């Protein structure tokens, strides 16, 4: 899952990590809802040679053997969180390399999960040939598609769907309640709530998500080396909003040093809020 701007590298790494951790469930869901594969078997295709050639690994690549007499083909999926003017060229390169290495026709999809309106083109015209692939804008699909799924990994994706005019806070609450119902332990619930907090940044809903998480009995396993994307942009805007987030984090057990590191603010600011909290 690539990005063009260097200053988004850390955030991109967080999205990549989540999609890799949940790969089997997420891609199974995407294939079921969007790709409509009719298959008897799906096997992994090694990516080592491809990665050496193009300096990055394909997000998803499997050999699909359909039911009936339809020939096998390579299913290639990329997750894209930003518009990329070079996307068609990248997909063409993948198509050529996959075809050369495995001698298979390739069915290609880009799943767009970004915030900005989709502008990428899915065709490429040249003098001697024309190339195309499929682009799916996940925001055009009803969030209920994912909310009613049977695995938490899929439910987390509901934050990326079409809210159908409902308030974000209501959607986030529904997602968290669904995650709580599906999570076998509090530790697992904390993991999925953490992932939801990360992905919510793609919809600029970090603050709303954290407020909902902090209002429920959920312990999030924050890693201060990964966390800045959760709250920096949303919590540093208005002073009262920042103070509210700091207060909730203190009540959740974060140390003043951790909060100062996460929000990139002086620890004295956090200590001042801590000192003014009601005594237990």
Written account of the structure:
- This protein is an alpha/beta fold and 280 residues long.
- It folds into 2 domains: 135 residues; 117 residues, no CATH class.
- The chain is 48% helix and 14% strand.
- It is built from 13 helices and 7 strands.
- Strands 1-2-3-4-7 form a 5-stranded mixed β-sheet. A two-stranded antiparallel sheet has the order 5-6.
- Helix 4 links the parallel strand 3 and strand 4.
- Helix 7 packs antiparallel against helix 8 and helix 7 packs across helix 9.
- The radius of gyration is 21 Å and the shape is elongated.
- The N terminus is likely disordered.
Tally of discrete structural domains: 2
Q: Main sheet?
A: 5 strands, mixed
Given helix and strand content, the structural type is: alpha/beta
**Sheet with most strands: strand arrangement:** 1-2-3-4-7
Helix run count = 13
Based on CA atoms alone, the radius of gyration comes out at 21 Å
Described by the principal axes of the CA atoms, the overall outline is: elongated
Q: What would the average pLDDT be, to the nearest integer?
A: 82
Q: Give the number of DSSP strands.
A: 7
Low-confidence stretches: 2-10, 222-240
Q: What is the helix fraction of residues, given as a range?
A: 40-55%
